[in-house]
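Fill in residues.
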């Protein structure tokens, strides 16, 4: 075997090793990418499902439930392409397909969830933030058209305003029932300030209602601060008594 042939064999061996290393790298990258996609899709499925199931019934509409079901179906179908032998994923995709086929006749079984505490309001706001993120991602993946995504993002903003309206109103009404006009005034005042910051004029009726409730709470608070007739008489008599006692003490000192 000549030196040139040996050189060629060595070069061929090196090239083969490089090719094998490259192919292994490609295979590993593909595995990592599939794993990443599975994690991401499972996360999107979980988020859509949680919002769909836990969103307060008074804020959920058939159109919104249909949207969440469509987004979950799309993620489930993409996941099924990565794990074609998963019976669970295949069954879930079939369930979601049937629900999407119902259109806006889809049933809304979410129970109403009164917004009475800061914690509950934060939970619902977090769900709206999740929904916002899923809509944005769906537009990026061309699951939703840009125009549809923009309309849904407007609806999310509207739901956020409705959430604040319900929370401040519930908080104020509850405080009135508990005879706490100071707390009621604070709640209605927050409602007025929040709605005045909204550029959309469609909340003018709710703003008027908050302003009326704020005026009512102010009146009740003033009434609780003003002494009653009996209290005024007791206060007057007490002052007279103090004055008499003071005069007596002065007289005793100077006599």
């Amino acid at each position: 075997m000549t030196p040139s042939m040996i050189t060629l064999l060595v070069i061929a061996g090196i090239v083969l090793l490089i090719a094998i290393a490259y192919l292994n790298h490609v295979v590993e990258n593909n595995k990592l990418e599939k794993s990443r996609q599975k994690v991401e899709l499972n996360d999107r499925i979980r988020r859509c499902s949680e919002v769909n199931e836990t969103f307060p019934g008074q804020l959920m509409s058939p159109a919104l439930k249909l949207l969440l079901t469509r987004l979950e179906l799309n993620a489930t179908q993409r996941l099924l392409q990565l794990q074609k032998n998963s019976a669970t994923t295949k069954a879930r995709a079939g369930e979601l397909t049937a629900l999407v086929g119902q259109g806006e006749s889809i049933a809304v079984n979410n129970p109403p969830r009164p917004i009475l505490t800061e914690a509950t309001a934060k939970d619902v706001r977090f769900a709206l933030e999740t929904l916002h993120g899923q809509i944005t991602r769906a537009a990026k993946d061309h699951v939703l058209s840009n125009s549809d995504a923009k309309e849904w993002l407007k609806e999310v903003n509207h739901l956020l305003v409705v959430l604040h309206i319900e929370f401040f109103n519930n908080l104020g009404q509850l405080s009135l029932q508990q005879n706490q006009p100071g707390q009621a005034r604070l709640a209605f005042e927050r409602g007025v300030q929040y709605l005045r910051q909204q550029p959309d004029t469609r909340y003018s009726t709710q703003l008027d209602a908050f302003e009326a409730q704020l005026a009512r709470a102010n009146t009740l608070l003033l009434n609780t601060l003003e002494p009653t007739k009996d209290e005024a008489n007791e206060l007057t008599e007490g002052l007279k008594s103090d004055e008499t006692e003071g005069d007596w003490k002065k007289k005793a000192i100077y006599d």
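The CA atoms of residues 91 and 174 lie 46 Å apart.
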